[in-house]
Amino acid sequence: MRIAGVQNDIKIGDVVGNLDRMEQWFQQARSNQADIVVFPECAVTGYCFDSLEEATKYAEDIPGNATRRMQDMCAKHGGYIAAGMLENAPDNGVYNALVLIGAEGVVGSYRKVHLPYLGVDRFSTFGDTGFAVNDVKGVSVGLNICYDSGFPESARVLSLLGAELIILSTNWPPPAKCIAEHVIRTRALENGVYYIAVNRVGVENGNEFIGTSSICAPNGDVMALAGKDEETIIYADVDPGVARKKLRMHGGREHMTDRIADRRPEMYASLVQEHRLKRPGR
Predict the structure, then answer these.
(1) Which CATH class is domain 2-246?
(2) In angstroms, rounded to a whole number, what is the distance separating the alpha carbons of residues 34 and 38?
(3) What string of DSSP letters covers 153-191?
(4) Where are the domains of the chain?
(5) For residues 96 and 115, is the Cβ–Cβ distance under 8 A?
(6) Does residue 146 have an active-site annotation?
(7) For residues 176 and 128, what is the distance between their CA atoms, to the nearest angstrom?
(8) Are residues 150 and 179 in contact, defined by beta-carbon separation less than 8 angstroms?
(9) What pLDDT, in 10s, does the model give residues 77-111?
(10) In what order do the strands lie in the sheet with 105-111?
(11) Does residue 112 have an active-site annotation?
(12) Catalytic residue among 41, 60, 87, 164
C-alpha cells in the first residue's frame, strides 16, 4: 500500500474552500498511486476558534455534508481520505474528529481523547468512543489526533488491537517540535507499526504551525519527511507483513526483541489508576 500525507495550509471557517483545495491535493496524490491520503487535524474547518459558539457553526454530523463530499472525491478518483473535522457533540458541543472515508462512505471515525488547552480543544468535548482499528484493503489502520501522540497508551492500545498503520492528523505549534522530530519515530519503533503524522503549515488566528510531517517505519526509520514551512505531499510504501512480525532479529538469534510479547502487564497497574490533577479551563 502507498500512503501519502498532505501538509498544507487551511483557512479557518472556509469549509467549502478547504474541501475544494483538499480535492486538488487528493487528485495529485492519487496521480502518484497513493491508496490512503492523510490531511491535517481540522483540515475541513480550521482549528483556532475563539469560542465554542464560533466552533459549533462549523461542526457537522458524521456522516454529513463534509463526509459526503469526501466520499464523492473517493468515488471520482479512487482511494481513501483521512481528514480532520469538527463533529457535533451533545448539548451543542463539538468533538475534534478524524474520519477515514472511501467510495463506500465512512470506514471509520475517531474522537480526540486527549485535549490540550489550545485552539478549539479548549472548548471540545472529550472523545468517548475509545480506540478502534479499521480495515483498508487488508491493512489494519488506527486513528489518533495530535496531542494523543504524547501519550504512549494511545498508540499501544491501537497496536494491541492489531493496527499495522497508525494515522495521526495534527496541528503542531512550535512547542511540539520535539514531538514532531523524535516522538513519532518512537511510537513507530515501540509498537512495531508504520506511523504517519501529518501536520499543517501557516498561521491561523495568531497561531503558527510547524509542518515537519513524517512517515516512519516499524523500526523507527524515517521514510519521508516534510519541511517546516512547505505545502507538499510526502509518500511511502508500506508492507503490513513487516508490521505484523513483531519479533525482531538483531545480529542473529542471540539478540531478539518483541515489544508486544515481552511486555509485563502485571506490572503496569498504576497506568489505569486515577492520578488526574485539576488544570485551568477544565
Answers:
(1) alpha beta
(2) 10
(3) HHHHHHHHTT-SEEEEE----GGGHHIIIIIHHHHHHHH
(4) 2-246
(5) yes
(6) yes
(7) 25
(8) yes
(9) 999 999 999 999 999 999 999 999 999 999 999 99
(10) 105-111, 93-102, 80-89, 36-38, 2-7, 232-237
(11) yes
(12) 41
The position carrying cell 531478539 is: 256
**Cell numbers for 262:** 515481552
For residue 179, which of 161, 199, 162, 164 has the smallest C-alpha distance?
Answer: 199
Choosing from 112, 164, 204, 216, the catalytic residue is 112
pLDDT by residue (tens digit) across 251-272? 766 788 899 999 999 999 998 8
pLDDT in tens, 221-239: 999 999 999 999 999 999 9
CB 213 within 8 A of CB 198: yes
Helix axes 184-191, 152-160, angle to 10 degrees: 30
User: Is 57 labeled as catalytic in the residue annotation?
Assistant: no
Helix (H, G, I), strand (E, B) or coil at 67: helix
Q: What residue has cell string 454529513?
A: 64
If DSSP codes are grouped into helix, strand and coil, which group holds residue 5?
Answer: strand
What grid cell was written down for 162? 492489531
> Among 42, 48, 74, 146, which one carries the catalytic annotation?
146
- How long a stretch of residues is the chain? 282
pLDDT exceeds 90 at position 249? no
Helices (H), the chain: 15-31, 52-56, 65-77, 152-160, 177-178, 184-191, 240-244
CA–CA separation, 168 vs 160, rounded Å?
17
Q: Could you tell me where the DSSP H helices lie in 32-163?
A: 52-56, 65-77, 152-160
Measuring CA to CA, which residue among 203, 238, 277, 191 is closest to residue 183?
191
What are the backbone angles phi and psi of residue 187, rounded to the nearest 5°?
A: -60, -40
According to DSSP, the residues that pair with 215 across neighbouring strands are 196, 224
- Measured CA to CA, the distance from residue 160 to residue 64 in angstroms comes to 31
Contact 197, 188 (CB under 8 A): no
- Residue 254's contacts (CB-CB under 8 Å, 6 or more residues apart) are none
